[in-house]
Amino acid sequence: MKNEFINLAPENIHNEHLCCIIRTKTNHPGIENKRQWLAERLKEGHVFRKLNEKATVFIEYAPLETAWVPISGNNYYYIYCLWVLGEYRGKGYGKQLLEYCIEDAKKHGKSGICMLGADKQKAWLSDQSFVKKYDFKVVDKTNSGYELLALSFDGSVPSFNENAKKSTIDHQELTIFYSMQCPYIEQNIQKIRQYCETEKIPVTLNQVDSLQKAKDLPCPFNNWAVFYEGSFKTVNLMDVNAVKKLLKKI
Hints:
Blueprint: E1 5-7, H1 29-41, E2 47-51, E3 57-63, E4 71-72, E5 76-84, H2 93-107, E6 112-118, H3 128-132, E7 137-141, E8 146-152, E9 159-160, H4 162-166, E10 174-178, H5 185-199, E11 203-207, H6 211-215, E12 224-228, E13 231-234, H7 240-249
Parallel strand pairs: 5-6, 10-11
Antiparallel strand pairs: 1-2, 2-3, 3-5, 4-9, 6-8, 7-8, 10-12, 12-13
């Protein structure tokens, strides 16, 4: 059982647990938002492969053309997430998941695979030191310290869209771009909204609910991005305490 992986599909998506959040036995709005988001993406070739256990052991990737990120390239896969946590680490699961993605890409004649990284490893981004062991290389950078890693099979490389390198917006207030891809987002957005209303802190919460909106974003994005005083700050998912620290720091 512990070596069995399954892919989410229209036939099982409503019955399988989403292993990126397993800490609650009660209904969780973020899980259902994620499930609904995934159900639409599966039609586009999106892959969510997980260990058939109640564990955080999974990989999530999609054709770059339909991936909700401001990155362009011909015939690539984009890895959103590759996670192995807790007691399941060190058992070779990450290796199996990444190698499955690589073989899947080759089987479908893809030009390569890419993912978001940074000049220094950041929370909420998959381990870039791990994928570099498979010859993923930095092929593009932004001035904000984020990098695009790619494993190319044919010499071609993807790139950040020019708008993603801008990393500035006109609005000065706290501004968060988010999608419902991550099941933690719903609860964080609601708590940040409530905190800002209580403290009378101006905030703009922009839901990215279409592929075009994602491709047009003015910063790197992996389902979350934060601006303050017109400048891009992070793709790390933030809770209220992190928002407090950001506002106090500025």
